[in-house]
Each structure stands twice: as structure tokens, then as C-alpha cells.
UniProtKB/TrEMBL annotation:
Residue ranges constituting the Amidase domain according to the UniProt record: 35-496
Domain of life: Eukaryota
Classification via InterPro entries: Amidase_dom (IPR023631), AS_sf (IPR036928)
Entry protein name: Glutamyl-tRNA amidotransferase subunit A
Organism: Cercophora scortea
Length: 533
């Protein structure tokens, strides 16, 4: 029987890392079954946040099998028996739906699961369940709140009552923040990992497009979409990434990975010495509301000093050559032009690949008709302006308008933007405050890796600011987090992890900062004692 002192020393699930969980499982301090049971109890306890959409009915069975395998044989590695949650737009072979939050795809599944999930399963993870998300990855309508889906309702952020969780990996970020899993999988087209990570004080990592297979994920844009991670530490992101990366025969975008062997990305997370690293600060990309005296900018300037003190060379005003041109382009016509054209093509391809499709959804137009005629989709109270724009505009991926727009975007992301700044100043990476702004948009367009790391929290006395769309969730308030975001070139993911890890260890923002305002309290020790909340 576990002694009382040992019970008290079991790790807190609010902070538990993959490394700590792996050590506990390997040493026999606790089992994957116990860990899975504890997370299920916490999910039920935190149901008001609506972060988790489904619990895998086979999660405990899989955990038991992995525990038995560990006893009979050696463990598979650090992910053996680790429970993870997966965003509701990444297919698994479990008894779980993959619906992008919409009733339109309830019961519809591809013939095979995502290559990324298959890789993680081979590494030994327990797929605990799926997380709620912004319906259709925030692509349904401009006035639909982040974190809302017809199936899952409104996810709420972890750090303030009625907080905007951001999106579209909303439930994924909140679940990681509240300790409802050891780590979680999200997706991003533009900002959908790093923005909710920022709002919920976790690490958001969007890898290079082409380093991780994207098959099995419900698409917005096959060119721009990427599966990534939301974790409590940078090293946890590296653990997952090492096991997710690699070529897949089902995603030709991975066929040009420039190295034959996927490195152990955890090796980039072992020092705070940044000697030899050059970091650029593209100030002409910052948001207009980033006043020098704002909490975000005060923390950002302090972060630059931290990076410099760690040995990095920081180049200020490493500005994008054509930042103003991109801003004008977006003012005239948002980048929905290219994404909408790609969505029409890519969603049709995905729908054609389904093994089951009970609602007979075969195109973007079918989705629109389903939303119109299904009361649970809450139309027109929840708009679908983007879908309607996609249908009504005479634009597709073969049109001159699409090609011209894409060429402009690639220019502004390349020599007119990220590459122009990095090449001019011989930079290893860029750093910006917050997870929003044109640098994040352009990194998405280019398929470049992005890493968001906790930077700070809005202080006491911060005026409460509400989102200007129903249900008017809280955007800013005392204790709500904000982040530091790093960007680099394709396949330079290791340098992002190295710098992000160093900053995380030196700043200790998440480790020492405020806790979520209402975290669940069930712990491993409660289950060991037979007590569940």
C-alpha cells in the first residue's frame, strides 16, 4: 500500500510534465490507469469550461494494456502510457468523432487515422479524448466567438471568469492549462495554436509545414494547415514533436524533409546559454495597440534583456522591408481570398476520403445548407459569413485572382517580410510580443515554425475589456496571460525550441506565475486513497 508521505509527494497534475510522468510510470510510483482515471475525474470536475468534447471510452483499456506491456517488456519510451487530448479535427481510429465541432460531420470518419496520431500511438500515448474547438477552425464566420462550436458549446479561458479562450485550438489550450491531460494536440492555419496558448499560459508550438504530416486533419488549407502541440513546457513540446515528425506517404508535403533521420528535439532543451544565436526584433510588425508603457511591451523589453544576458545577440529594428505593403493589401482585401479558394478544394477532397458520411456532406455548399437547416448550429445567431463568401465569390485555385493574391502573400512573407529581415541581418530567428500581428500571419503563409512561450500577466487594476462579438467574452483583465513569440525559417524548429526553452527556464513565468482562477483539485493521491471529487 502506498504510504501517506509518498502519496503527498505525488506530482500535481496541474503542473505535471511528460518527463515527470514518464519517470513516475517507469518507477512504478503510479500507473497509466491511475493517471488516466485522475484526468477523467479532472475533466468531469472542470466541465463548466467545456474544454473537452469527448472522453475515449477505451482510454482505460488502452492504459491497462500499456501498463501490462511495461511490466512484461521494456517501455516504448518517454511517451509510453502518457494520456493526451486531441483537437476535434484530427482523426483517430478510436471510438471518437472528428467533426470540427459541427453536427455536419458527426459520425463521419476517414478510413485511416492521422499519420501523426498513428506515430504517437506507436510511441505509447493514450488518446484520452477530443477537445472542443472554434467550429470549423474559426473559418465559419467573422462574428462567431472563439471556442464556440455547435457540438461543444462555448469553451471558456482558464484565467478569468468568462474569459475568451482564443482559438481555434481553444479546448486544447484550456485542457493543457487546467491539467486535464499531460499534453495536447492542436492545429493551426494562422494563429490557431499560438493564440489560445497565449490566452491560457501554455506553450504553443506550430512546427514547420512539411516536417509533420497533415493527413487526417479536417482542412482549411492543405498548403497552410499544420498539426502542432500545446503543452505546459517547451521540453514537453519537444518530446511530442520528436515522435510526430517525419515523412508520410499520405502527405507529399513531407517528402522534402532535408534530413534522413529525425533528431531528438529534446537535445535542444538542455541549456540556457544562447551564445552564437542572433535574434531580430521586427518592430514595424507589432500591433498598433502595443503602447511602450503597456504591460505587454514592458514585459517584452525585459525579455529582450533576458535573452541578451543569456548570450544571444539581439538586433533591434530588424524590420520587414515591405510590412506597410502587406498591411495595405490586407486592408484592401483580407487573406481570405486565398484561403477560401483552397478551402473549397481541400474540404471537398477530405469529404471524398471519408469512409462513413452519414449526413452526405460532400462540399462547402453542403456544409452551408446543413448549417442553415439544423437548429443546433444556431444560424443565423451565429453567422457563417466566411462560408457564404467562399460560395458566392467566383474564385478558385485555378483562377488568376487566386494566383496573383498568393504570389503577393508569398512575396510579403518572403523577401518582403520574414526572409528579407532575416537575410539582411543574418538572423537565426525573430521575436515579437504577443501571438497576434502580421509576423504571425506571414509565418503561417510561408509555413514557417512558430513557438509561443508565456511572458507575463495583466496586472491588478487592468481595465476589463470585452470581445466585440456575442457573448462578449473577456479579452483583457487582471491575471490574463500574454506571451512571447519566436519565428524562424522552415526546418529551423530546433533553434526555436532552444531559445524558447532558455527563456522559459530563465523567466519562469508559468512556473512561478498565477494559477488558473478555478483549477480542478483531483490529484493522483486522491485516487490512491479511494477519494474522487
Amino acid at each position: 500500500m502506498t504510504g501517506s508521505k509518498e502519496l503527498e509527494s505525488l506530482p500535481s497534475l496541474l503542473h505535471l510534465t511528460i518527463e515527470e510522468a514518464a519517470k513516475g510510470l517507469q518507477s512504478g510510483r503510479f500507473t497509466s490507469v491511475a493517471l488516466t482515471k485522475a484526468y477523467i475525474a479532472r475533466i468531469n470536475e472542470a466541465s463548466e469550461f467545456k474544454a473537452v468534447l469527448q472522453i475515449n471510452p477505451d482510454a482505460l483499456t488502452v492504459a491497462q494494456q500499456l501498463d501490462e506491456e511495461r511490466v512484461r517488456f521494456r517501455g516504448r519510451g518517454p511517451l509510453h502510457g502518457i494520456p493526451i487530448l486531441v483537437k476535434d479535427n484530427v482523426a483517430t481510429k478510436d471510438k471518437l468523432d472528428v467533426s470540427a465541432g459541427s453536427y455536419a460531420l458527426l459520425g463521419a470518419k476517414p478510413a485511416v487515422e492521422s499519420s501523426v496520431i498513428a506515430k504517437l500511438r506507436a510511441a505509447g500515448v493514450v488518446v484520452l479524448g477530443t477537445t472542443n474547438m472554434s467550429e470549423w477552425a474559426n473559418f465559419r464566420g467573422l462574428h462567431v466567438s472563439s471556442g464556440w462550436s455547435a457540438r461543444g458549446g462555448q469553451t471558456l479561458g482558464a484565467y478569468y471568469p468568462n474569459q475568451n479562450p482564443s482559438g481555434s485550438s481553444s479546448g486544447t489550450a484550456v485542457a493543457a492549462a487546467l491539467g486535464l491531460c499531460t499534453a495536447a494536440i492542436g492545429t493551426e492555419t494562422s494563429g490557431s495554436i499560438v493564440e489560445p496558448a497565449e490566452f491560457n499560459n501554455v506553450v504553443g508550438f506550430k512546427p514547420s509545414r512539411g516536417l509533420i504530416a497533415n493527413d487526417g486533419a479536417i482542412p482549411i488549407s492543405a498548403r497552410q494547415d499544420i498539426i502542432g502541440t500545446l503543452t505546459r513546457t517547451v521540453k514537453d513540446a519537444a518530446y511530442l514533436f520528436t515522435n510526430m515528425a517525419g515523412r508520410s506517404e499520405r502527405d507529399e508535403g513531407t517528402w522534402n524533409i532535408p534530413f534522413d533521420t529525425i533528431p531528438d528535439f529534446c537535445t535542444f532543451c538542455n541549456t540556457t546559454d544562447l551564445s552564437g544565436v542572433t535574434i531580430g526584433v521586427p518592430r514595424n510588425t507589432f500591433r498598433a495597440d502595443h503602447d511602450p508603457t503597456s504591460p505587454v511591451m514592458v514585459s517584452f523589453e525585459a525579455a529582450l534583456k533576458t535573452l541578451s544576458s543569456a548570450g544571444a545577440k539581439v538586433i533591434d529594428r530588424a524590420d520587414f522591408p515591405e510590412a506597410d505593403g502587406y498591411k495595405k493589401l490586407n486592408d484592401q482585401s483580407p487573406n481570405l481570398v486565398s484561403l477560401c479558394a483552397e478551402f473549397k478544394r481541400d474540404i471537398a477532397r477530405y469529404l471524398q476520403s471519408l469512409e462513413t458520411n452519414p449526413n452526405h456532406i460532400h462540399s462547402a455548399e453542403d456544409i452551408i445548407e446543413f448549417i442553415k437547416t439544423t437548429p443546433a448550429e444556431e444560424y443565423p445567431d451565429r453567422d457563417m459569413d466566411i462560408f457564404l463568401w467562399t460560395r458566392d465569390k467566383d474564385i478558385d485555385v485555378g483562377s488568376d485572382k487566386y494566383q496573383q493574391r498568393l504570389e503577393k502573400e508569398l512575396f510579403y512573407g518572403g523577401e518582403g517580410g520574414i526572409l528579407g529581415a532575416m537575410d539582411k541581418h543574418d538572423l537565426d530567428l525573430l521575436v515579437v510580443p504577443s501571438s497576434q500581428g502580421i509576423a504571425i500571419d506571414l509565418a503561417a503563409i510561408m509555413g514557417f515554425p512558430v513557438l509561443g512561450v508565456p511572458l507575463g500577466f495583466f496586472p491588478e487594476g487592468t481595465p476589463v475589456k470585452l470581445e466585440d462579438k456575442k457573448p462578449n467574452l473577456v479579452n483583457e483583465a487582471p491575471g490574463i496571460p500574454y506571451s512571447l513569440t519566436f519565428i524562424s525559417k522552415s526546418f529551423s524548429d530546433g533553434v526555436l525550441l532552444r531559445v524558447g526553452y532558455a527563456f522559459e527556464q530563465l523567466s519562469r513565468v508559468r512556473a512561478d506565475g498565477p494559477l488558473p482562477f478555478k483549477p480542478p483539485t483531483t490529484e493522483l493521491k486522491d485516487l490512491e486513497l479511494g477519494v474522487e471529487n
